[in-house]
Amino acid sequence: MTVEMGKPLIERIKSKEAVIGVVGLGYVGLPLAIKLAEKGFSVKGIERKPAVIRALMAGKSFVPDVSDDDISNQLYKYKKFSLVKVEKEFRNTKDTLRQEIADCDVYIICVPTPLEHSSRCNPNIEYISQASEIVEYSIPISESKHKLVIIESTTYPGCTEETFLPIVESALSMHSARVELAYSPERTNPGGKVPFWEIPKIVGALNEISLRLASELYRPLFEDKIIEVTSIKIAETIKCAENAYRLLSISFANKMAQLLQHTEINIWDAVRIVNRNNVTLHTFFPKNILERNWPSEVEFFAEILRHNGLDGEILTAPTISINNIAKECANKIQSEGQDGTDQQLIVEMIVQSYCQLSVLFFHQLARFGNLQSIQVDIKELISGILTKPFGLNLCFPGPGAGGHCIPVDPLYLYWRATKEGLSLPLIWESYRIDEVMPDKIVRMIRESLYARGRRLGESSILVLGVTYKENVPDIRESKALDILRSLLSQNVNLCYCDPVFAERQSELFPNKDEWMDRELYLGIKDRGSQYTLEKTVRFYLKGLTVDECVKMIEGQEIHCVVIFTNHDDFSENRLYKRIISNQMVQVIDTRNVIEKELGQKPKNVFVLGRA
Questions:
Q1: Long-range contacts of 599-606 (CB under 8 A, 24+ apart)
Q2: pTM for this one?
Q3: Which residues sit opposite 123 in a β-bridge?
């Protein structure tokens, strides 16, 4: 097979005559579709959610990285972007719309890949399967017999080929059509400082033709930042592994915060210094070691350990865990760091423990890569992860990971390894530490109120922010929802304020009743007696504006404020200062934002990891 077989399609891509179909217009698909349209491609946005289609038709963006003007310009002014509404079952979509989709030369799949509700470890590839139907049913009715399919949705290693390879093979045998297949994981950081087109783009493909076509398509967006890897599986594994590493960092920081909670050690300052010194994964795995040829992985990791001043025996230690490494670090800090004044010594101990965890993490992933069904080179994996310009540093403590990536992607790896009979204990422990963080926060709330002689069930509590990240309207996997559910189940008088989430709701549901702007639906499991099946009790929780929050606080109606998400709106409206001015209000600050804002931590403020 030669690259020349793909020449007609590659010429259409280079000349930007190729029609691009972006399947899924969420946080990943919409920015990508708009950017491709801006670069001169004709782009069809393929979406099945009516609320999304309505908002976009009205020129309204609901993601932070795309403006309303971006939508209007490409949809109506330049007409490079169009919308196609499909049904859940693609075969039920109108014939005219199916034909419109079939005219696409390239399909880029950007659909959600959640976990199954019944089992938190099992991937739910329902949306990917539905997207594959779009490609499958389009091929027989398309005039073009050479197409490119790229999957950007995060999924487990092997999923792309399992789902799409049968389509590739049947297209050739039944319709004499060539379908090229590539995988290029999204690395979007919603609301971040680095736009997605400046983040190096990992591309893996089924063959040389597919790789060349995919890279050529992305070149106008990413220019020289395209990173071609040797297979689809390595590309899939890079995405899962970089988020698994992020979860490891979050869980380690939270475990350290818990262990140092009642000491004079300021874990927040220590992490700040670690990051100021640019200690990242690059520090632990230097380029000169990665680029050398090693006779075996054993010698590679031995050199990495020597480089970082660590003992090679840690790779075979019987009790490798985040908990044990964090405990050992905390004990050393308390015995040698004394009262917390020797900040340099404390930082060195934390860096050494973090490095140890990092090496052990990738040592476990090397075993995964060596599986017969995976075949991923550990050095190529680490090198691919190191191309990411963010997310490789030690994280601050907090209420737990959120969003569609970090709490979910590691479990794809864990599930795939378990399926092959391999354990990845550090990934599982990271997940377990992260999952119980809402319980830790609720306990802090209960204890702070009890110190004032008030029971949790007799209290009025205000939660500031419900989205998983500041200035981003996304509540997927947000630990705030778990905290709210727990408090509601204990009969707390509860309310929340999140102007960023409220704005998105009003954009997506402009024709709904006014309550849709700020009320939040929460399903709480009621297990009843041991003889009854559990049922979901519905709660519609009232949201407040910032002004309403101020009135309630000044009117002594709130006993406790929980700062979950530090949106800019709260600082700009001086909300934190108004809260602190009322000494009767207990404050649970899960982000340590009060000290950052005011330069001190008042006595009525409780922070994770601070005495």
A1: 604/580, 605/580, 606/444, 606/448
A2: 0.93
A3: 115
